[in-house]
Amino acid sequence: MPRNYNLPEIRNIINGCLKGSRRDQELLYRRYAPSLYAVCLQYSDNDEEARDILQEGFIKIFTNLSHFKYEGSFEGWMRRIIVNTALEKYRSRNRLYMVEDIDMIPEPFVDPDNEDYSGLDAGDLMEIIRMLPPKYRMVFNLFALEGYSHREISRMINISEGTSKSNLARARMILQRRVEAYTGIKKKVLNG
Amino acid sequence: MDETRTNIDLVFRNGLKNYEVLPPPEAWNNIRPAIRARQRPLIILRAAASAAVLLSVAFLAYRLSTRITMPEQTVISGLPEGIPPALVIAPGEVQVVAEKNVPPERQIIAEADSDVPGEMEVIPGAADDNLIIQPVETSQTASGVVFPARHGRKDFSLRELFRSDRVEIAAADAEPFYFPDASESGKKTGKWRISALVSPTYYTSFYSGNDEFVSRLMTDEQPGFSYSGGLALAYRVSKRVSVQSGLYFSSFGQELAGITSFAGFQPYDYAKGNRNFGVMTTRGMIYTNNSDVFLLDTRNENRIVTRYTKDYFDPSKANLVYVDNSLRQNFSYLELPLIIRYKLLGRALDFNLIGGLSSNILINNSVYAAIDGGRYQVGRTEGMSMLTFSSSLGMGMEYNFPGNLSLNLEPVFRYYLNPFSQTPALKVHPYSFGIFSGISYRF
User: What is the topology classification, in CATH, of domain B188-442?
Assistant: First the structure.
């Protein structure tokens, strides 16, 4: 588990990075890479793509460190860079994803009575979110996890506000079913 | 239904809030060379920009000096090639200029001062009645030429003579008098000059940001005793323009009011290492390197960062010895200046306009508290730029003694182009004012 630094220590590390100190660059990477890599995984189809986003994002972070003005959270600033890098990658691919029909999405197990999701850990949630079609995943991530509005999302990924809303609704529906399914499976496994 | 769907947002938001996954090891190996490659052009660009600024300043100074000295040069260069001097006057010699364009009743009697070595030329100009007078060697001084003239002016300098369209020529029997060129009088000197200068300096700074905390830090920081001095070597590239460089040492500091220091903390220090306290300043972060020191912010401004907060350590119950109620930061720099000096007035007291750039290399950085006239070492300031650039502008006064010595007095304003701290939020730009005094030797 990487060590948590206080603000003066972070300032020192940033200063060191600005001076080109390799030690401080590595310290900063080791401290923040795990949480940012989780964000990369959340926005990518596979581990290779997540690694590419992380690499490109960190290169941007290091080369733009002098622009960080200490006006907000440093972690939040880095997270925005990573999310923007993921969006760039998403836009540049310009892929036309075949959106699977909800009824066609395989659902391993559904337990309609289950309302308790506390059995799911972060790894399960990440797995579920990455199973979403990219169009839905992007909108869900940006809206539900990053807090952007539909208007902002429509500009970010070049879709209409209506499409953003509809994608979000479909993403939620899929996630709801999958969470229920996962919870059911886990309970069954745990109860033997 | 909507509530359930919003709830699913919360399930993911909360579930993934602190989620961390170790990235593959090769990711860092791919990032490291990329950021090193990107930093290099930045350094090259900065060096190129500095060189461009220096060249521009030098070029502007050269152009300015060329334009101002133009009248003299125009006259001299206006001579048709191959025209020999009308006469050459040796020191102490008196001659009558017999030029075909000058009527006999308007001839010049020329006499060189016997005190001044070197010969003078009196040359007919391109236009009728124009006379050009110049030293035989242009690098030589032009003092001591005697002319009879009917205007009776005794402060008529050689330079003014060159500027005038016509030389007023007196009758041959008029009473002769001197036309000393004050700017050049008594200065049989070379192009080099070495100076030893020293100055008490007043340092202060201004903050260009709007962070309230930084503004508050600044109010608690008072400039301390500062001085600067060193050796300068100047080369005269023209009559008015000199380029100067050298090596200066400067020391300056500031006092942090309200940071009280105590000695005798070592028995209570349970942590490994000496960096028990950090103090935020506009110059950077002070870290203690003395495990015996305990620091307290008596102004309660949260400038101190430490694990020994009130919850863990009560200084009033410990056996600590009071040292001082303020900390003193001290910095020393080696300065490598590149200065252009432009002579505005050349009399017995020369006036020069001075401007240029200096690169300043940090060579000492210490923080201490004062105790019984001595220093109680506390630590050092981190996050300081090792290299800073400053621009300077000043006015130089130079009193010329007979011989090659002169006395200098130079009030100089200096502004630091980049902040001392590398922390981007601390955009505190120092500036200073000093009055350099010293002596110069010309050779």
Answer: Porin (2.40.160)
